[in-house]
Amino acid sequence: KFYVTRLLRIRKVTDEDMHHNFTCMLQADERTQIKIIKLKKGNTRDLPVRIFTTGMVLAVLLPCIAVAAVFVCVMFRVDLVLFYRNVCRRDDTAGDGKEYDAFVSYLKDCVSPTEEEREFALKILPMVLEENFGYKLCIFERDVSPGG
Q1: 79-122, pLDDT tens digit by residue?
Q2: For the chain, which has fewer Cβ within 10 Å, the N-terminal or C-terminal residue?
Q3: What is the pTM of this model?
Q4: What is the pLDDT of residues 20-37, one digit of tens each?
Q5: How many CB atoms lie within 10 A of CB 143?
Q6: Three-class SS of the chain
Q7: How far does Cα 124 stand from its chain's mean position?
């Protein structure tokens, strides 16, 4: 026996096509087979527009939100860590046995009419990092004794 399968795709079916008979004929060697086919409606239903639209919006929106979240985490990772420490009252550096968290170095003999570097190193950094975030800074003029 020899079997052949062919798929017939009808691209557009109208209501009028449902009332007609279609004839399929197969010729092989000297034999001919004829089958009469009548189309009938299936149970296939499309998704409602509301569900389809919601799904498409979510499919576009969720990756955009994920990319934005990754971007924010990368750009503000230090701020996020400091925020986490502040909210959870948890500091992993507290029990590490180190006397200072950071050493502040600046060019103190630099002749600057505004003395911005000195003010930043001696006033602004300690105010923000020590008072607001609980870090312990080592500033040479303040914390290192002469000859030490």
Answers
A1: 888 788 778 876 666 666 778 888 888 776 666 666 788 888 88
A2: N
A3: 0.40
A4: 898 888 887 778 888 898
A5: 14
A6: CCCCCCCCCCCCCCCHHHHCEEEEEEEECCEEEEEEEECCCCCCCCCCHHHHHHHHHHHHHHHHHHHHHHHHHHHCHHHHHHHHHHHHCCCCCCCCCCCCCEEECCCCCCCCCCCHHHHHHHHHHHHHHHHHCCCCEEEHHHHCCCCC
A7: 36
